[in-house]
Design brief:
It is elongated, with a radius of gyration of 33 Å. By secondary structure, the chain is mostly helical. It is built from 9 helices and no strands.
């Protein structure tokens, strides 16, 4: 290689280097910002996860303490003081309603469940459970006709508590004097392949108690 060729290559390399440094000076800040954004995003994500985990643990501890109270009324009172968000809020409300009912205050229990029943943004598994629980707790407070109307909305095919809702509908029909309709309802439950063994047994027992044959057509 001649000296002239070597000189040309060195000059060319210097020009490239100058262009590269010039590019870095002009646009290098974009790369720095991108790196900082990636590092900051990862750090924030880890912080968010840690904070969510800490909040979940604090809520769990609060629920445990509340459920450790000695009486139904005390547990209901303590559950009402638990600060929770999301699913934990719904669970705390369900637990509180159960404790209020156990303490003999069905009206207060129903008032706790009412907002959950009316919340269209709530997942069906929770909203339907609130409706079912309300119908069961409100047996002495809500007219059977009204309970049937409430339960019919969660007894459609594919609904998470369809069979339990049908069982409560049959119970309400007995209260209304619609015994034959109740028997047919219980019989359908006893023959439903999706029903648990316990639910089938309860349905069959109710059919017998109502004076009918569980297996009759």
């Amino acid at each position: 290689m001649s000296h002239s060729d070597t000189f040309i290559e060195e000059v060319t390399e210097e020009v490239r280097r100058d262009k590269f440094y010039g590019f870095l000076k002009k646009y290098g800040w974009i790369g720095i910002v991108a790196v900082l954004a990636l590092v900051g995003g990862a750090a924030f994500n880890e912080y968010s996860k840690a904070q969510a985990r800490a909040e979940a643990e604090a809520t769990g501890d609060a629920l445990t303490v509340a459920l450790g109270q000695e009486t139904d009324a005390a547990r209901a009172e303590a559950l009402g003081q638990v600060t929770a968000e999301g699913d934990a809020r719904v669970i705390a409300a369900m637990l509180r309603a159960g404790e209020l009912h156990a303490a003999g205050d069905a009206k207060a229990a129903l008032s706790v469940l009412a907002p959950l029943m009316a919340d269209d943004m709530l997942a069906p598994v929770y909203r339907d459970l609130a409706v079912l629980k309300s119908a069961m707790i409100g047996a002495g407070e809500i007219a059977p006709e009204d309970r049937v109307t409430q339960l019919a909305a969660i007894a459609s095919p594919g609904a998470p508590y369809r069979l339990l809702a049908e069982e409560q509908i049959a119970a309400a029909q007995v209260e209304m004097g619609e015994v034959q309709a109740a028997i047919e309802g219980y019989r359908a439950i006893s023959q439903d392949v999706e029903a648990s063994n316990a639910l089938r047994r309860r349905a069959a027992q109710m059919i017998v108690a109502l004076g009918a044959d569980p297996v009759a057509e």
